[in-house]
Write a structure and sequence with these properties.
This protein is an alpha/beta fold. Helices cover 34% and strands 24% of the residues. The N and C termini lie far apart (58 Å).
């Protein structure tokens, strides 16, 4: 059964939703599923903007059959060749043998690498500023390398003010009928998934995202719709979502607040982390969020680290090193280029306590990370005679938050 929604007078969403996939890119949990967004323009020439993951190909084909009927598909535009969008390219080429393909030169190379038979189809390699006229609609292309693959382009339909943004402005979560961001409570139900999507998928590439935002800024007064490849389409309050991406890509925190991430083997480090959280709240810093790194997927920790201004990392010493899941969190922070955060350290161990020193060394290898001088060392557990040290750590964190 077809499942389409109209975006503008001539533009339709023809994508699909996926609730069967448990892990996006086989790593990030998506308990709310994900959408694969594809768009069909019905002008003098018909244009398909991107395809879908192979698992959703049948739905895409049924949607195209419903809207095209006996009409041919004239053009296929590929903004991004990652398989969650490009896997069905070959099927489109087989179904519509006369279709012309528009993509960047590097995207055509990637198609060859994936084994797609693009020979026999006209290939139009677009670069910065190129335009294609399809009738009433002229679409202009802009290079967006490393957002988050090197072949990415975005495009802008000058007639209707539609920005096809590729993976930019995307989010985890299946649409389930609600195509537009104004049809949901985005701040309540979608923002966390949008942040987790950006920070874990695109987060490393803040500078390329800033470059793209500057390009979008040049036509901001003309943009009426943002059509990403995952998640809702934006037609209202565009500045709200653009501002979020500006913060994330500049590695600026959204909120003054404290992420407490602890690694505890037998509950003693956890107990200290909870005691610290209580002391912070007593001092008026109630925007405190406590996570056990052993049972929280690192993608959620990364998202929270991007959201909040301060972190407390509390880890036991394990084999004379950092507890493995905490070490993994630190490695992901570095890989995703997290910066401009203030961090306090808590360490624990029964002998040869090393985790604090080693965590500090990891943080010093990142950009613009401030480690507070005040820290806390426990020997096996936090005892009553260390209450003053815990108070001093809480005071230092709150003072930093208020500065």
């Amino acid at each position: 059964m077809y499942n389409v929604r109209k975006v503008t007078g001539d533009l339709y969403w023809v994508g699909a939703n996926d609730h069967r996939l448990a892990l996006f890119e086989n790593i990030h949990p998506i308990p709310r599923g994900v959408s694969y967004n594809s768009y069909l323009l019905l002008d003098e020439k018909t244009v398909l903007f991107d395809t879908v993951d192979w698992s959703a190909c049948r739905q895409l084909l049924e949607n195209l059959d419903h809207l095209l009927g006996d009409k041919p598909l004239d053009y296929l535009v590929i903004h991004h060749m990652e398989p969650d969008h490009g896997a069905s390219v070959e099927e489109i080429l087989l179904r519509y043998p006369g279709v012309k393909i528009i993509a960047s030169a590097k995207a055509f190379a990637f198609m060859q690498q994936f084994g797609f038979h693009v020979e026999g189809h006209e290939q139009i390699a677009v670069k910065e500023g190129d335009a294609q006229c399809f009738g009433k609609h002229t679409v202009r292309f802009f290079a967006a390398p490393m957002v988050h693959w090197p072949e990415v382009v975005v495009s802008f339909d000058e007639a209707d003010g539609v920005l096809f943004s590729a993976d930019a402005f995307g989010t985890f979560g299946a649409l389930d009928g609600k195509l537009f961001a104004d049809e949901v409570n985005f701040d309540r139900d979608w923002l966390d998934d949008a942040r987790r999507y950006f920070t874990n998928i695109v987060g490393k590439y803040g500078m390329p995202v800033q470059t793209l935002l500057k390009k979008a800024g040049g036509i901001l007064d003309q943009i009426k719709f943002i059509c990403p490849l995952h998640g809702p389409v934006w037609r209202k309050d565009l500045e709200y979502f653009i501002h979020k991406h500006d913060l994330w890509s500049r590695y600026e925190p959204e909120e003054k607040g404290v992420l407490i991430a602890y690694a505890s083997m037998y509950g003693n480090t956890e107990s200290a982390a909870q005691a610290l959280a209580a002391r912070l709240c007593e001092r008026g810093m109630t925007n405190v969020h406590v996570y056990d790194v052993s049972n929280t997927h690192v993608s959620y920790l990364i998202s929270e680290a991007f959201r909040l201004s301060h972190m407390v990392l509390a880890s036991v010493t394990y084999n004379l090193g950092i507890y493995p899941v905490m070490h993994n969190f630190l490695a992901d922070m570095k890989a995703l280029n997290l910066q401009n955060r203030t961090v306090a350290l808590m360490e624990n161990g029964t002998w040869a306590i090393k985790s604090g020193e080693l965590m500090k060394k990891e943080l010093e290898g990142m950009n613009r990370m401030t480690v507070l001088e005040q820290s806390l060392t426990m020997t096996s557990a936090l005892h009553g005679d260390q209450a003053a040290g815990l108070d001093q750590l809480a005071d230092a964190i709150v003072a930093s938050c208020r500065s």
